[in-house]
Design goal:
heterodimer; A: alpha/beta; Rossmann fold; 2 domains; 6-stranded mixed sheet; globular; B: mainly alpha; MetI-like fold; 75% helix; binds adenosine-5'-triphosphate; binds magnesium ion
Chain lengths: 248, 288
Amino acid sequence: MSLSIMNLEKSYSDISGKNLRVLGPIDLSVQNGEFVCLLGPTGCGKTTLLRVISGLEQADCGEISSEKGRLGYVFQQGALFPWMNIESNIKFPLKAAGMAADLCRSKAEEILDLVGLYEFRKSFPHELSGGMQQRTALARGLVTGPDLLLLDEPFASLDTRTGINLQEMLRNLCRRLSTTVIFVTHNIEEAVYLSDRIVVMGHRPGRIVRDESLSLEWPRNRLSSTFTEVLLSFRHTFEELVDPSISS
Amino acid sequence: MSRLALRKKVRTDLRQKVQGLLPGLIMPLVLASLWFFFSSRSILPAPGAVLDVLLDPSADLLSCGSLFWNTGVSLIRVLLGLSIAIMLGTPIGFLMGASGRFRHFTFLVTELARPLSPIALLPLSIIIFKDTSFTEVLGLNQLKYSRNILNELQIGMVFILAWGGIFPVILETMHGVRGVRKVYIEAARVLGASRLFIFRHVLLPASLPDIFAGYRMAVGRCWMVIIAAEMLPGTNSGIGYLLRYSYQLSRLDIMLACIFIIAIIGLVFSRGLELLGEKWLLLRARER
Ligand SMILES: Nc1ncnc2c1ncn2[C@@H]1O[C@H](COP(=O)(O)OP(=O)(O)OP(=O)(O)O)[C@@H](O)[C@H]1O
Ligand SMILES: [Mg+2]
């Protein structure tokens, strides 16, 4: 599903009633099936942008146009339902869409296998580690085979090895289903490894400072010199954002 | 595990349980022996006399009916009032929690009515409802002069019980619904759930522990209210009535037996509901 955002602005009012612009005018259009990573320092409005796109938050002005389709959303803090076990959590969006019970189960089991949580399907969220909870949240976002998938730092609390496996899994699945993905992360290497295109955001107010499609071929090799080159160039942009004095 | 080992485990489990209970039994034993000691030199009846009353619960007492009958009358009154409180209070509390407009609409009434003790309303409810019982409401006048439970279920009594029970139910339900974390509702929304689906699968289960706590408070309050109400004019049955009547006739053995029964039932209500809540509803499977 393609998506286009034009001239979007969003402010919050703080306690004293003062208006604080969180998202500056933002223009962004995402092609159908594109995997876009949104990279930016903390507090620059990445979560807010996802919330506006998903309709949880109303923009002050600007326009978002997209086709109709299924939405998948993986929250920054899991947001699993603590009174449901892992399997029920994952089945939630399927049941909400009115899918028959046995189909729900087979779909959930398939995705549980993919994220490696099949043995834990009867556990409750509080019985799992932080990383396992994140994988559950990922599975819940993926299970419907969404047309647009919004992911808010889904791999933040995973160790490198598990993170890489899941990146692989996510990437393959999204290509197979030609899902349009907006993936928020702090992790530059993750962004360079996963995405077709990287959008870097700066803060106060949140705006796009760099938007670049990657020409790296698949499968990507994290140790190749081209990969490192791209990585370094984005690291440079990032450092500049945090501390503008480096740019010289 | 072998049969023998299993039996051994059961036995040690049992022993541990009994040992766990022992410290709690010390105080009651001390109190009972004090009672035994003082009853011989005061008007207090001996424990044996009270036990005699308790051990023959179906014997008629003071021509008021048996312990069984009077306890049953009180219990059924409570259950009736409580069901009304729950059936009305839960949806009202839910609406108040979910809709700010409804909350503002009802806020003043509930805040004013809540501190009003149900006992304070007893005279008023007797004036309004007279001594109309369910026999008359259901049009079963042929039952009127027989000993039938319907004769003992006065509308006024059920009304004040419902009054006593409804506010804890409303308030706890409202707090439960308002306390559901926004992120759960948002998650459900972006995952495509309709309002009805969110109500059924998010709002309801997430606030269930609070709703249940409200029910527990309501049961406790109703049990207190009924005893007090039965001691006042308006009825001549129930464990509270038997308690007051035995006092008037100076039958302290019966009076103490009534007190025991009231305490035991109160305990069973609160502990029983607590266990039910933990075991059945998995209330503890929440975030810690
Ligand atoms: N509900 C709100 N009310 C007021 N201010 C808010 C609200 N939500 C977010 N903000 C502000 O908006 C800014 C952007 O927040 P946002 O959560 O979008 O950042 P982020 O880029 O996702 O950061 P992180 O990488 O740490 O998750 C922050 O400065 C925050 O203080
Ligand atoms: Mg964020």
